[in-house]
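A note on notation is needed here, since sequence and fold are reported together in a single record. The reader may check this reading against the record printed directly beneath this paragraph.
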Amino acid sequence: MKVWRCVAFVLGLVVAVLAVPVEASEAPATRRVALVIGNWHYTNSPLFNPEHDAQGMSDSLKRLGFDVIYRTNVDKKGFRQAVRAFGDAIRGAGVGLFYYAGHGIQVNGQNYLIPVGADIQRQDEVIDEAIAANLVLRKMERAKNRLNIVMLDACRDNPFTRSWRTRGGRGPGLAQMDAPSGTIISYSTSPGSVASDGTGKNSPYTKHLLHNMKVPGLAIEQLFKRVRIGVDEETAGRQTPWESSSLKGDFFFTPGSQGSHAPASASSIGPFSDEREAQESLDGRIARLSQALMKSARNRSVYVHPIVESTQRYASDFSRYLTLRIKTFMVNSRSVTVMDGSQLLALLARHQQESSVQRVLGSGGRIDEASLLGADLLLDGIYFVNDTSVDVTLSLKTLSGETVTTIDESFPKARITMPLDNAELKTVARIADTVQQSGDADVVHLSTTRGGRHPVYLEGETIQFMTRVTRPLFIYLYGYNAKGEVVRLYPGDGEQQVPLRPGRVHRTPDDDDSWEIGVTPPFGTDTVKLFASTQALPVPRLDQTVASKRIETVGQGVSRTRAIKPSPLSKRINPVDLVDYFREQARRLDAELFEDSVVVETRKL
C-alpha cells in the first residue's frame, strides 16, 4: 500500500457579512462558535498532522472563548450532520469559525473536503463522495453573523491522481474560493501551489497560526502577516502564505490592553487612517518605514538583502527602488551602517588569495556575507501584490537568525507607477513551472554558495549550485532563461547516473570539473531547476526545432493539458516540455519526483 504524505494547506476566509467592525473592545455578550473537524484515518492515504492540528485548534479556541463543536474522522453523513449543527448554532452568534484538517482536493476549479471512508475511484465520483467546501460558506452566509472565519488545513496533494487523468483546471492544490463582499482570504501558499508538511506534529501554517492567535491585540490581518513571515522563514521561502482582504473592521482573537492593539515585539505602521495620509508620497511612506527599522538598528551595521516578490522570489523595478530608498534613508540618518553585495565583492577582490575567505566560499550552504563584512544584523524583505495595495514585510534579524523586529507596510497600488512584476522571470517561471512544482524542503534542497533566497552574483564571480537530500535520489539540474532556452547542468553527456546519498552535498559544477559557471554579460535573472527522483530517469535531448506538446488554455486562470508521451533515452523534446517530460516519466515508472528551484540574479560590477 502506498502511503501518501500530507501536504498542509490552510485557507483562512473571514467574511464580514455586515459592515459593522468587530473591535478589540468586543462586548462579552458576543458569542463565538466554532466547528473543528480533523480527518486522518484514511484507508489508502492516512495522515499524521490533522490529529494534532485539529486538537490544538479546538483547545486554543476554547481558551479564546469559543463554544467548540469538535469532530474527528467523520464519514460523509457525519460530516454533513456536523455542518448542519454548526449552521444552526451560529445563527445569532457574533462570530462563527470553521476549521478543517484532512484531505482536500479541487476538481474543475471547485474545492472538496474528503470524508473518512470515501470510495473515490474516478474523478466524476468526487461530487458524490466528498463535501463541497462551499457548503460551509452557504451556512455561514445564511446565519447573518457579524463575522465568519473559515480555515482549511487540507492536504495539498490529490491522493487520487494516479487513479484518473484530470482535466479542466486541476492544479496540485486547492483552488481560490469566491466569498461575499467584505472578506479576508489567507492561503498557506499561493492558490494551486504545494505547501509543506513540516517535520513537527503540526503543519507549518497551523503551528504559526496557533502561536499568533495568542498574541494580545493582534488584528486578524496582522496575524496572517505574522504567519506568512513564520512560514516563509521555516520553509526557506518555498511556501509563502498569501491573502487578499476587503475587511472593513478589526477582529482580535486575543484583545489587547485598551488603547493598544499591537504586540510589543512587533512594529507596524498600519493602514491609512485618513485621506491626507492616503495621499502621502511613496517616498514619504518609505521614509517612515525606514525610520521604524532604524529604531531597532541604531548604531549597528546592517547587511541588506534585495527585497523580492513573495511568491516567485524575483526582483522588480518596484522592489529595487524600495531596497535602494531604504538603504539611502538609513545611510543618510548616519545612525546605521549599511552593507550589501557590492561591498562583499570588493572585499573578496582584496583578499582573493586568503584561505579563510576561500573556506567560507566553499563551505556549502549560504555564504555568510554579513560575517565576512562584519555586519551586526541582516535585513530581508518580501512584497505581495493585492487587488488595491502592495503589502511589504521587512524582517531584521541577528546573524544567528533570531528576529529582532518585523515591520509590515501597505502601499496603495494606485500610487506605485513603476512595474511590480518581472515579465522575463514570469516567462521563466511559466516554462519551469516553479509555482506548481512538487517540492518538499524536508527531502531535497537546492541552494548556491550565495544562498537560496534570490542570490545575487556580480561580474567576475563564479557560481556553484548545491543539492542536499535526506533520501537517496537521482538528481537532474537545468538552467532556464527568459528566451525559452534551457541548458542541462547535470548530469553531463555520458555521465553515469548514481543516486545522491543523504549527508553529502552535491556541487554543480564540482571542484574537480573542468568547467565553471562564470558571471559575464548579458546580465539578468535566470532560474535553475532541480528534479530529484527515487528512480533513474531517461535524460531527454533538448531541441528547439521540435514542436512543443504543451497545450495551454485560458479560462478563469491558465490551465495546462500535458500531452507528453513516455519517451526513450534518445527522444528529442522541445525545452518547453522538460517539466512535463520528467513528471510523465516519473508517473510512468511509479517513481516519486521532487522539484526545487532557485532564482539567480547577475549584475555588472
Summary: The chain is about 25% helix and 25% strand. The two ends are 56 Å apart (CA to CA). The longest strand covers residues 95-107.
